[in-house]
Automatic annotation (TrEMBL):
Alphabetical list of InterPro entries matching this protein: CheY-like_superfamily, LytTR_DNA-bd_dom, Sig_transdc_resp-reg_receiver, WalR-like
GO CC field: cytosol; protein-DNA complex
Native source species: Myroides albus
Alphabetical keyword list: DNA-binding, Phosphoprotein
Protein name, UniProt field: Response regulator
Amino acid sequence: MTSKIKCILLDDELLGLKYLKMLCEQIQELEIVAVFDNPLVFLEQQKQLNYQLLILDINMPQIDGLSVAQLVPTKGIIFTTAYKEYAVEAFEIDAIDYLTKPLRKDRLLKAVHKAMRNIEKEEKPLFITSNTNKGKAVIYFEDILLITTSEDDPRDKEVLLINDGRITLKNISLDKLLEVLPHGLFVRVNKREIIAYKAVQFFSYDEITTTIFDVNNKPLLVTIGAAFKSDFLANM
C-alpha cells in the first residue's frame, strides 16, 4: 500500500500557497517535494522531480491550471480554486478532485485519500508469475478470459487465454488468484471458476454466455452460483 504520496504544490497567490502548504504538512500521507508560485517555472523544472500528485490553482497568469494539468497527463491532479464554474472542465481531464477555496483540512484529506486509491491501483502489477505445466510463466491479466478448476487435479487451475491459448497453473487456489487479480476486471462466478468481465457476452440471473467458443464452435456457457450472484450482478 502507498504510505506517502510525493506531491508538488502550485499557486501564484503566495498567501494561498502558504496556507495550502501548511494544510499539507498536517497530512501525514503527503510528502511535499517542491512548491511553486509560477506555472512556467514548474513546467520547466517538473521533469527533474519525482512526484505523483500535483495540487494546483486554476486561475493563474501566463497559463491556467487546466492547461498545466494537460501537460502532465501521467500525474494525479487536485485542483484548488475560488471559482466553481471550472468543475466540469476539471473532471473532463480526469482530475482526482476539485476543491473550492477557502480550503478545509478535512476536505483536502478526503481528496488525498482518493489520490492514494488511484495510485495504488496504478501500482498493481499487470501480470502474475506462477508455476505452470510449461514451467514458470508470466501471464498478463489482459490475456486471461476464464480460470477454471482442473478436472484432473482440483489443486490446479486451467486458464483460457485470448487467441485460444490455454495454460495450467499448478497448485494454486481460486482464493489466492482473487487476491492478485484486479477486482474491476475479474469476478468469481461459482465454486470452480473466475471469469474476466470482457469475456461476458450475455448474462441472465444464473448463466453467462461467454465470448469463448467450445470444441463444437458454440459459445461457452458458465453457471453463476447462488452464493456469487449478488457480487456478479452488482458489478455488472
